[in-house]
Amino acid sequence: MHHDQTASETTDHPIPFAHHRLRGPFNATFFRLMGPAIERSLRARKRRVLAGLPAEVVEIGPGVGANLPYLPSGTTLVALEPNRQMHAGLRSAADRHGVRLELRERPAERTGLPDDSADVVISSLVLCTVPDPGAVLAEIRRILRPGGSFRFLEHVVAGERTFTRRVQRWTRRPWTWTFEGCSCERDLEAAIRAAGFAEVEVERYRIRSPFVPFNTHIAGVARVATDS
């Protein structure tokens, strides 16, 4: 990927993104406080999915930097994070882990990055929050080079006729409002498989937490054809 800026951090001109004046700070604080507990549940899968990353990585929705420990020191992270309340924590985490941060206040649907410019795009607990996962996946496909990969860990809908699925239905509206659009009812595995990748590997698993609607997950890698 080629960038004109050489500073340790760059920020694009922001695209307006509507964050509630209470929910934005609440979510930044929540994930800062709950991050360690969530991380313990996801660590084994992250180590597998995020292994062998290149020197430059694009991440959509990095939040306060939960995935930075999995990036080798010296990595350049092109971070697409529209919630300004997350930026201070993300900068601090990048400094701690020796990651060069290019911070762009842009939504995942409109990255502003060139076609075929990234070897790897990563996301963690992001596609459940975006307004249109299909548009985000199309954008990821656009910016990935032939042979590139999308590495993901996502929160997804539970199986039909399960207790977790019933709880997801009961809590759908308050959950979505509280967590800035996060849906606990999305079949993101189907969305990723339908997004035009040449190969998709998915592991389905369940974590144990008091937040029952959040407990069904997938992790995997989706690859672009080498001759696309």
Question: Which descriptors would you attach to this protein?
Answer:
228 residues; globular; 6 helices; alpha/beta; single chain; 22% strand
Describe this structure in words.
- 31% of the residues lie in helices and 22% in strands.
- With 228 residues, it is of the alpha/beta class.
- It has a single domain (23-223), classed as Rossmann fold (3-Layer(aba) Sandwich).
- It has a seven-stranded mixed beta sheet with strand order 3-2-1-4-5-7-6.
- Strand 4, helix 3 and strand 5 (144-155) form a beta-alpha-beta unit.
- The chain starts with 22 loop residues before the first helix and ends in a 5-residue tail after the last strand.
- Mean pLDDT is 85; it is low at 2-19.
- Keywords: Methyltransferase, Transferase.
- Residues 58-151 form the Methyltransferase type domain.
- This is Methyltransferase domain-containing protein.
- It comes from Protaetiibacter mangrovi.
CATH hierarchy: architecture: 3-Layer(aba) Sandwich
Summarize the amount of helix as a percent range: 25-40%
Can you count the helices? 6
Class from helix and strand fractions: alpha/beta
Largest sheet: 7 strands, mixed
Question: CATH superfamily name?
Answer: Vaccinia Virus protein VP39
Strand order of the largest sheet: 3-2-1-4-5-7-6
Unreliable stretches covering 5 or more consecutive residues: 2-19
CATH class: Alpha Beta
Domain Methyltransferase type: 58-151
Protein name: Methyltransferase domain-containing protein
GO molecular function, one term: methyltransferase activity
Keywords: Methyltransferase, Transferase
